[in-house]
Amino acid sequence: xxxxxxxxxxxxxxxxxxxxxxxxxxxxxxxxxxxxxxxxxxxxxxxxxxxxxxxxxxxxxxxxxxxxxxxxxxxxxxxxxxxxxxxxxxxxxxxxxxxxxxxxxxxxxxxxxxxxxxxxxxxxxxxxxxxxxxxxxxxxxxxxxxxxxxxxxxxxxxxxxxxxxxxxxxxxxxxxxxxxxxxxxxxxxxxxxxxxxxxxxxxxxxxxxxxxxxxxxxxxxxxxxxxxxxxxxxxxxxxxxxxxxxxxxxxxxxxxxxxxxxxxxxxxxxxxxxxxxxxxxxxxxxxxxxxxxxxxxxxxxxxxxxxxxxxxxxxxxxxxxxxxxxxxxxxxxxxxxxxxxxxxxxxxxxxxxxxxxxxxxxxxxxxxxxxxxxxxxxxxxxxxxxxxxxxxxxxxxxxxxxxxxxxxxxxxxxxxxxxxxxxxxxxxxxxxxxxxxxxxxxxxxxxxxxxxxxxxxxxxxxxxxxxxxxxxxxxxxxxxxxxxxxxxxxxxxxxxxxxxxxxxxxxxxxxxxxxxxxxxxxxxxxxxxxxxxxxxxxxxxxxxxxxxxxxxxxxxxxxxxxxxxxxxxxxxxxxxxxxxxxxxxxxxxxxxxxxxxxxxxxxxxxxxxxxxxxxxxxxxxxxxxxxxxxxxxxxxxxxxxxxxxxxxxxxxxxxxxxxxxxxxxxxxxxxxxxxxxxxxxxxxxxxxxxxxxxxxxxxxxxxxxxxxxxxxxxxxxxxxxxxxxxxxxxxxxxxxxxxxxxxxxxxxxxxxxxxxxxxxxxxx
Length: 764
Ligand code: ADP
Ligand code: MG
What we know:
Pfam families: E1-E2_ATPase, HMA, Hydrolase. This is Cd(2+)-exporting ATPase. It is found in: Cell membrane. By secondary structure, the chain is an alpha+beta fold. Among the domains are: 1-56, no CATH class; 259-346, Calcium-transporting ATPase, cytoplasmic transduction domain A (Distorted Sandwich); 438-466 and 588-699, Rossmann fold (3-Layer(aba) Sandwich), CATH 3.40.50.1000; 470-585, Calcium-transporting ATPase, cytoplasmic domain N, CATH 3.40.1110. It has 30 helices and 26 strands. The protein has a 7-stranded mixed sheet with strand order 14-26-25-24-15-22-23, sandwiched between helices. A 6-stranded antiparallel sheet has the order 6-5-7-13-8-11, with no helix packed on it. The chain has a 6-stranded antiparallel sheet with strand order 16-21-20-19-18-17. The two termini are 45 Å apart. Magnesium ion binds next to helix 19.
């Protein structure tokens, strides 16, 4: 195929971005006329590509993790991005660790090493966290959570209360001090241990800051303050860990969607087997009311299947023999025999989980910005704290105690925890919410773009319409209808275009068979061609025949009339004779108009339809569907140009398509949204956001959710910054106490987390 040679650069996967790789795949799906250059395939030969190569090379380091022998662990107890950094640095310093990545948002650690898992687990423990191998986590979705942290905190709290109670009555101050000291030791043991590893690996995380503050307080004899700092810090971090775990859990709960066992049919016997043991080609039986355990194709039976768990679709889908079904969906009516087509690890739901986890590991631009800010902020405040402890008293501007105390407060205020947490928790929650509505957002960056969208462009065929056109009218101009239809059938037999499928179906219904043809070619955006009995015959639109200088004037009026009724016209003929006209119509999806109305309601500025179809049909469909604007008669490369035009004046534009023949436009838009993710793999690879259902139902929800996520992230950032600055401001008049400083830090973090978790609950 010609496009493959054009896209040579694309054959090397390392060369192109994932988008361009899929691009190649998509292109090779449609046979292309050698006479028509596949201009879209030039993506790789010009610009863009070199930059992509570089990016790819940089990513290679990370890809070792995917290719090499690696293990995945789930880490518990991380409540701050810095914790992940500390753990990563510590593990990297170990001689037997080749590569490691710790992700705070997902709580995952990927590691390449040549030692035993036990050693890894104990090293993680040393740094203050709990590692659970990912494989055992999948079996028992709920891993045993450690209560040791909580009980230590409780003991520390009791000691603190005892201490303050005894300070009220007449007991020797040594006893009071001992009680406080014990409280500090018990509650501070874990953070101090983490702090030790942080310092050792050269990072300045909140454990270090809090530990220094507590030790400092003890040194200046403020035992009560020290104990309060330790207790409040322990309480705050425990609460934070718990709530962050809850957001992480919301993704893991997706894994429980599909049942762990299946009824496998062998002969006439049914045996219950774990899904891991079911092979491709096995037949499984799913009774009414049961969940489907694996992806497959219906071999016998009909039913209505509720696909909401995967696609978010509100209405169950009727399924019959030959239709695909997905693990995790619910068989509502009849008993089904299903021919298994995917192993348990390759099912659609497994891929969703994988994609969602990957998505959550990607940093959004805001997050990266906040991280950079924190990286500068913390050391600056830390140094400031040291300076304040030393210089003013050195110059005799006050007592050492007073300035030391102010310095310790600064140490606590130097903790940027709430700020650092402001973005990732919100993003994880939003991506999790979307996933449960059948929408995959491939990363926080795309969530941010979706939240600022102004214009949405839609592909017509298969996106706004069902993509299953039907022949509605046949007009014969020259010769017999039978001859004309047989020729149409012969040409279209080799095309995969929905129009071709419609003509094949119609002629099959008329019991017509194809004739002997050769040199079958597709003329992109115009039609198709074949040589029959030595004569070139064409099937295509008016433009195609005008280009051939065929005698079209006599049929133009009829053609226009049919087009204005919303039909797509296929003319059959040669360069000097028109044999006939076939009118094809594609119904608008029921969900389309509804979704478009909702988009208007939530304030999307402009909806645009892009189509290769003619002006008349386009205008009819556009007004019926309710889009604001349309571009008709576009060749694939024109769709790219149309997107670029919409992007003028910095407009943020999303392109929505089925991902099959609109990959270039999806890649050009600020945001590529594909639908029908459950059905086609290409859609899953090409786009930034994937609607698993084969319709637009969840699009408005996705946009509302993204906007709310953006708003919540902004609130979080401002809130944590303002709290920090108020705390800083209160230090110098001497109004801030150490324990207030701790509360302002951990309390703000908790509020930020709670605010972010609202995103888990947003319904559409
Ligand atoms: P779209 O998906 O927006 O309809 P296409 O580029 O797939 O755009 O097709 C554009 C137009 O080209 C169609 O509306 C039709 O008129 C014509 N066409 C494309 N392929 C065929 C075909 N196999 N047979 C007849 N007409 C075709
Ligand atoms: Mg199309």
